[in-house]
Design goal:
By secondary structure, this protein is α+β, with helices and mostly antiparallel strands. It is built from five helices and eleven strands, in the order E-E-E-H-H-E-E-E-E-E-E-E-H-H-H-E. Strand 8 and strand 9 form a beta hairpin. One of its GO terms (biological process) is circadian rhythm.
């Protein structure tokens, strides 16, 4: 099987590609949603170690160089930057339900993840519950019982007559069971202040997450739009979705 890799020029390179990670679905399958669900769940072990031939890096752990979030309204008004982020547990996802609208290239995925741990560096400025905040340092967070709905929106493009799916956007919504945070602030080095900040974060985790959810979802969606396009722009539609 061949996968064509678009390069932005008229001359695209064609590379041999193992298709063991692809379970093709048929447009005419009356149980197309179930097939797409199997396809995404089947991908899980391959995503753990990465798929080099289509430039998909390992997702266990998942490495993200930079994430930006900004919330300008409500009791939590902050601008946050996260660097060198490493997430553990994302590969333990389970796709529980799928709604595929192929004519409009829209796929809605309902998924659960038991637990994700995240660490990295952060910088936050703004106001939290009327208190001014300026903090920078290392962070750790753990989220459990994650339930999410991701809506993938795309459109078809052609490269040298071959059809690919290009992801335009990913809409994301999520709910968390429990959340825990720990930060090590390098600006406010007082141990007492650090302990107070960690206690404040954990005691008000639900409020903070609810306020930051739209900004967090938008930031994560931007990252995964690029992540998925690495794959979809290298695998012709006819390979994973037959007539």
């Amino acid at each position: 099987m061949l996968v064509l890799s678009p390069s932005g020029s008229r001359h695209n390179a064609v590379h041999p590609c193992s298709a063991e990670y692809i379970l093709p679905c048929s447009r005419s399958d009356p149980k197309l949603n179930d097939c797409v669900k199997r396809l995404f769940n089947h991908l899980r072990p391959y995503l753990i170690r990465g798929i080099p031939e289509i430039d998909v890096p390992p997702v266990e752990p998942l490495s993200i160089n930079k994430l930006y979030m900004e919330n300008g309204h409500g009791p939590v008004r902050v601008r946050a930057a996260f660097n060198n982020v490493t997430a553990f547990g994302a590969s333990n996802y389970s796709i529980n339900n799928v709604k595929a609208d192929v004519p409009h290239w829209k796929i809605e995925l309902h998924l659960t993840i038991p637990r994700i741990e995240v660490k990295g560096q952060y910088e936050v400025t703004g106001n939290v519950l009327l208190f001014p905040v300026r903090s920078k340092g290392d962070f750790w967070a753990a989220f459990s019982d994650i339930k999410s709905i991701a809506t993938i929106n795309g459109h078809e493009i052609f490269q040298d007559g071959i059809k690919f799916l290009k992801i335009q956007s990913i809409g994301a919504d999520f709910n968390l069971g429990k959340s825990r945070f720990k930060i090590k602030d390098v600006i406010n080095r007082s141990n007492l202040l650090g302990e107070a900040m960690n206690r404040f974060l954990n005691e008000n985790a639900d409020v903070i997450i609810d306020e930051m959810k739209p900004a967090a979802a938008a930031s994560i969606s931007r990252h995964f739009t690029g992540f998925l396009n690495k794959a979809f722009l290298k695998i012709p539609v006819d390979i994973w979705l037959t007539e």
